[in-house]
Amino acid sequence: MKNPEINKKTTPYDILGISSATLCLIHCIVIPLLTIIPFGLTDNYIVDLFFACIGLIVVSKILMSEATNTVKIILTISIFIIFVSILLEIAFDIDFGLILFGGIGMIIGHIINFKSHKHS
Known about the structure:
The protein has 120 residues and is mainly alpha-helical.
């Protein structure tokens, strides 16, 4: 049986993770569209790294919690995909779009973990 106190401790991290992953996903969808319009905006990998670091902190907290293995696997794979995408962008200066899959995985993993708190 899961300890409800631990679930209460990870709930803020799930909310932060969902919010951060959603903002990151919006950033990753909107910025490339805005670069088409001649506003002089460019996509900067520093912003991606900022969101990824927030995600890494949140994922590490959840990995140390009593979250289900499914949630841990989803979040680990998602954060890995995000960092690989950022490293590919830095190395080749090409947006491969992998970060979108990582962001969606982060949102799904956090939502599943958040919903599991209600059932325990």
